[in-house]
Design a protein that fits this description.
Elements lengths: L13 H16 L3 H8 L3 E10 L5 E12 L5 E7 L5 H17 L5 E7 L8 H15 L8 E5 L5 H15 L23 H16 L8 E5 L3 H12 L3 E7 L2 E4 L6 H11 L9 E3 L11 E4 L18 E3 L8 H9 L3 E3 L1 H4 L2 H15 L5 H26 L3 H20 L4
Parallel strand pairs: 3-4, 3-5, 6-7, 6-10, 10-11, 11-12
Antiparallel strand pairs: 1-2, 2-4, 7-8, 8-9
Helix pairs in contact: 1-2, 1-3, 1-13, 3-13, 4-5, 6-7, 6-11, 6-12, 11-12, 12-13
The structure holds nicotinamide-adenine-dinucleotide.
Nicotinamide-adenine-dinucleotide (NAD) binds next to helix 7 and strand 7.
Amino acid sequence: MTLVDHATDSRTSALEDAHAQLAEAVAGLGYDEGTHAMLSKSRRELTVSIPLRRDDGSIEVLTGYRVQHNISRGPAKGGLRYSPAVTLDEVRALAMWMTWKCALLDVPYGGAKGGVAFDPRQYSTAELERITRRYTSEILPIIGPQQDIPAPDIGTDERTMAWIMDTYSVSQGHTVPGVVTGKPLSLGGSLGRASATSRGVVHIAKAALKSRGIAVSGATAAVQGFGKVGRDGARFLADEGALVVAISDQYGAIHSASGIDIAALSAHVDVTGSVVGFGDADVLGADDLLELDVDVLVPAAVEGVIHAGNAGKVRARIIVEGANGPTSRDADAILASNGVLVAPDILANAGGVIVSYFEWVQANQSYRWEARDVEARLEERMLAAWASVNELARTHDLTLRAAATRLAVSRVTEAHRLRGLYP
Ligand code: NAD
């Protein structure tokens, strides 16, 4: 299968976007340069080499990162990404966004992120296990249930989390389920965690549609990415009566004006590994998906896909960011002036970290909640955050992203202020 080649002009980096968003929030809040500097720097960054014995006996050395952006509100929390596109700067940006997300949703964590720069699809299961265990042992000194708690992200899953938990537990001499979230259910994972990000995306999509006077039943949607977030996101949107007319992955895109059968597409992807070749839909240019005339566009793949070069062509009424950082700061300005409502990543995809928090609480208490409790508490937190972000946006004439970032930054700064500066 060949990868889609995307034009890379007109793009800013994720770190540039994250810094610009922070600078705007700091200016709006009237904070001084010292506070700005404290918020913009990672608290801790670790780069590690991961020597791997490949199945054929050869040795390869991969590079991994773990960045803890801020821990003023609690232990660091953030996903682990396996992708050839991983860089230290990307991990820094993602860690910063995690800080804001946790503060915005008021979960007692700081922000972190990890990554290893390689393509997991090119490695065997045994190799993936060795990479994960060696990466874990290299970052061992800075992770733990009270220090930093990884979770799945692009290219990782519950099996990866099980290997991390086991490696960490072996080093401690006893089982430590709270060191990761997104674990398999049989190892203390939470009911509802696997689909939590997608559920949260759909709670926000419904709230955004309502705010624009559009009924969810019959609303049209396009979803970029058919992984952990996009697949269930498309499913839940269809369950709500929306018509999911286009879906893409890294290999291509498909379109059907009458709506794609998500269950049938899932079965196709389980067999072939891609949405490409699905019988009951037409082929669509991968980037064309972003420019479809739909009610809701859900980018649920990678950062920077909506940028200065294509933002003016976006015809969706609403964008709900399942992915982290899919919209660049230049694109944000264009979308705002064109009246496109953007539900920002730190709000829209926060369902994952909310239920990760629930999983961590359950692990620390050795207790399991019912799925209905998890889902009800998830919805309550998502909608409360939606309401407070909208209120701030309305009263201060801000975009939802500017309001969400401002709210989050003020909470993190308040924690710094109350704790004081050591020594
Ligand atoms: P994943 O690896 O499970 O799936 C990624 C999907 O995106 C795959 O279908 C892949 O083929 C597709 N993709 C990659 N590049 C693409 C491109 N250029 N165009 C179209 N499709 C492309 O990853 P995931 O966990 O679903 O994460 C997706 C995004 O959501 C990331 O930005 C991640 O940081 C964010 N996110 C994930 C979670 C979570 O709980 N997994 C939580 C919050 C945010």
